[in-house]
Specification:
about 325 residues; alpha/beta; Rossmann fold; six-stranded parallel beta sheet; 6 strands; binds 2-acetamido-2-deoxy-beta-D-glucopyranose
Amino acid sequence: MAFVPQLVLALLLAGTCLGEPPPRPQASTATRTVDGITTIYNFGDSLSDTGNLARQGAAGLLRYTTRLPYGVTIGHATGRCSDGYLMIDFLARDLGLPLLNPYLDKSTDFTHGVNFAVAGATALNTTALAAKGITVPHTNSSLDVQIGWFKEFMSSTTNSPREIREKLKKSLVMLGEIGGNDYNYAFLQTWPIDGGYSLDNVTRMIESVAKAVDLIPDVVKTIVSAAKELLDMGATRVVIPGNFPLGCVPSYMSAVNATDPVAYDGRGCLVALNLFARLHNAWLRRAIGELRRPGVMAARAAVPPWPRVPASDQFHHRRMHVRRLICLDLS
Ligand SMILES: *[C@@H]1O[C@H](CO)[C@@H](O)[C@H](O)[C@H]1NC(C)=O
Ligand SMILES: *[C@@H]1O[C@H](CO)[C@@H](O)[C@H](O)[C@H]1NC(C)=O
Ligand SMILES: *[C@@H]1O[C@H](CO)[C@@H](O)[C@H](O)[C@H]1NC(C)=O
Ligand SMILES: *[C@@H]1O[C@H](CO)[C@@H](O)[C@H](O)[C@H]1NC(C)=O
């Protein structure tokens, strides 16, 4: 029974969880492990990048993440799109492991896992998005590129596929959140940009959401086939987070100055964007269900109410994400 792979769709949403103090940068690894997990492999975007984009040369809006006040609660900027730590940091700490080092920092220690996430990364690759008229502004390190890095890493640190299976048996694989940027870039394509987002027109918002809906099947297919590949290589615990309530994201909310009350839900978040996120999640959940096979168990984390967040913040993600992590249910 020890080999029963677990495929977990975790919707990282929390309304009631309280923040915790940030983890120490190098937690002791000798203290405890959880469920035999000694390594974490993480794929994703700015929600979990701990310094890859900074090493690729962050440009544009994301350039700001490489200097203070980003990282201000840690004391220095790390390339994390946050004022402090991210969910993945708290997850590592809660599993008794050191913080995950970014893959592109070749000087560091990857004994307890690797972070392949790159801020701005998409699920679909640049070519596939270009074919849909969508330009990728920040990085070409889409999910297939990150999976490629993972394979390179695994083959360079093991001697056989069997050894890879052994390694993965003791690992947690975090596959996402990824795909959110595919949609963000689709939105940006249709929303006029004036030093940021501008979205005071509800009709236009609904039109661009409709356009992004077209992307959902391909985005989900890409995520699920990556999961399949990882399971085939021997992964036994794969967490596939859903998208978060986009309509409550501070950067969207502060950009949207909709005067029309129908644009907002009871929590003051943007209705169309939250519906869109739910649609992506429903589609993803169904595809994960189809991925189920003998020996693979699909579980789902509890989904607490979506959070209410302040309408503006200078930080890309704020600590809202950190609070979510505390609710991540790995059982
Ligand atoms: C991009 O993704 C598409 C669809 O998955 C794939 O067919 C194509 O080979 C990929 N292109 C590159 C350059 O990786
Ligand atoms: C992505 O790849 C294209 C084609 O190789 C290149 O022109 C572009 O500069 C790359 N973009 C980024 C952000 O690296
Ligand atoms: C809102 O956007 C739609 C679609 O782009 C456009 O036709 C309409 O004129 C806009 N309305 C206002 C008040 O800007
Ligand atoms: C939002 O719109 C109102 C009315 O159109 C305007 O007075 C206000 O300055 C706008 N706020 C922002 C932050 O753009």
